[in-house]
Amino acid sequence: MNIEYNEAHKIVQNNLLGQLEVHEEAAQSNPRLQGPLNMKLGPKVQSRWGNIPDDKLKGPKTNAIGCYIVKHKESKLPGIIGRGGIGGRISTLRAVFNNEGKPIKSKKSVTTYPSARPMWKHDPDLANWEYKFIVTGYKDNSDPIGTMLAEEMSKVVETIMQTKFKPLYSDIRMAGK
User: 0.85 cut: is pTM over it?
Assistant: First the structure.
């Protein structure tokens, strides 16, 4: 029994060490802030943010985990900084925003995004909002450790970004949660 336990422990230990090395390399590779993407039209429209054109940019890949920053085109401060599954979070934000920032109720659930309401009140035209994102990893059911590390790294990125930029409609107490 002890031999089997020790062998299993070695396998887990080696797997964890390998995962940490991969993610340490990713953290050292200076993840790039990608965007901006128009909130209404996505990557189809060219826009400028800080003189960086986005003429060849694509949106986040499926299962991308990371941090996103949403800002009004004319504002100098971000409106929202969030983290998690980027595509899903942006989709939820769009849907709630298009419902005048109010929760969307169905028979079985309620879809909310609390920051959407003040964002909508600021400017109800979704085309005037854009977002950027940083990918920290991808959700992969066959790699739960990699997924967990990507989630944890996104929490760190969100906390740093919220502390630095102080977004108008995100609650700093929720950063990294």
Answer: no
